[in-house]
Amino acid sequence: MKLGTLEKLDLLAAAEERALEAALSQALHAMRHLEGQSQVLAAYQARLTAGWRDGAVIAAAEAQRAGLFSLRAQDAALQLAASLATARERVNEAATALAIQRAKRERLRARLDQSRAQALRAALERAARNQPHRPAAPLI
To answer: What is the Cα Rg of the chain in Å?
Structure first.
């Protein structure tokens, strides 16, 4: 391939790599956010459970609201777990795609370096051929 073509391909590969890095960053952020939500929910459920275990007297309406919240919290925990699994999947996919793209770019860079070295050798050979011939100095 021509040197210019390889350089353009390298620029395109760099842009693709940056896009994949951004996608990985977004996926990691989403996963961390979901993990944080899961921790908050788990902490609240633990406090609610601890409140029940203390044996304190509570109003029936409050118990009913707590039971309803507990059911909804369990549903939310299941949804968070599913979302977290999906987010982890996206992180893994993005990391794999980024690793593949980086490997491709490394191969492209090797070809680019090889092509540049070949172009330099060819330029040096042309320069050597284009120099006027000078006879060797006579030996005395």
So the answer is: 33
pLDDT of residue 59: 66
Q: What angle do CA 10, 16, 17 make, to 5 degrees?
A: 85
pLDDT surpasses 80 at 66: no
Closest to 109 (Cα-Cα) out of 9, 15, 4: 9
Rounded CA separation 59/56 (Å): 10
CA distances (Å), origin 112, targets 17, 96, 102: 17, 24, 15
How confident is the model at residue 57, as a pLDDT?
A: 63
Q: In which region does residue 95 sit, left (phi positive, over 0), alpha (psi from -120 to 50) or beta (all else)?
A: alpha
Note the pLDDT tens digit of each residue in 85-109: 999 999 999 999 999 999 999 999 9
C-alpha span between 28 and 91 (Å, rounded): 6
